[in-house]
Amino acid sequence: MPLPPRRTRTAVAALAALALTAGCGTDEPSTAAPTSSTSAAPGAPTAQQQQATAPSTVTVRVEDMTFSPDELRVQVGDTVTWEFADGPAHSVQGIGDSAMGINSPIQNAGSWSYTFIAPGNYRYLCSLHPEMRGTVVVEE
Ligand SMILES: [Cu+2]
Q: Which residues pair with 120 in a beta bridge?
């Protein structure tokens, strides 16, 4: 007895509306239009997009018991790759809540990458050698 038939009717109506909307969209040749308009007309209101540079990758060498460079500046969206090339094994371990995602395995060869998606100052150390420290400054 608890289920009123009204709910079902509403759901059916919503589904029908969705189907109608989808039908409208597929009728128009809308797939070709946006592609040609964006490539043909580099419009004026895209100043913010033009300012943003393409994401890049910056490399930090892990050797001689140091991170080199031990401080670097990147933009939001950039990736930092740590290249491990030392006898002893090291890790990259973020310091503090905002750097929790920086957490590489312990390794003495190969590389590990992290993409920074929020601005801020990220400090990190090697969990095996806490005197090994570095900073990544991520700018908007
Ligand atoms: Cu280390």
A: 138
- Calpha distance 132→65 (Å, rounded): 7
Among the listed residues 118, 38, 106, the one whose alpha carbon sits nearest the alpha carbon of residue 78: 118
- The two beta strands, 133-139 and 71-75, are parallel
User: How many residues in the chain?
Assistant: 140
Grouping H, G, I as helix, E, B as strand and the rest as coil, residue 51 is helix
Ligand 1 centroid to Cα of residue 92, in Å, is 8
CATH superfamily to which 51-139 belongs? Cupredoxins -  blue copper proteins (2.60.40.420)
Distance (Å, whole) CA 92 – CA 100 = 11
Joined tokens for residue 132: 């090994």
For the chain, domain boundaries: 5-46, 51-139
What are the pLDDT digits (tens) for 65-109? 999 999 999 999 999 999 999 999 999 999 999 999 999 999 999
CA of 133 to the centre of ligand 1 (A): 9
Distance (Å) from CA 43 to ligand 1 centroid:
50
State the distance from the centre of ligand 1 to the C-alpha of 122, rounded, in angstroms.
18
Calculate the CA dihedral of residues 14, 20, 24, 26 and round it to 10 degrees.
Answer: 90
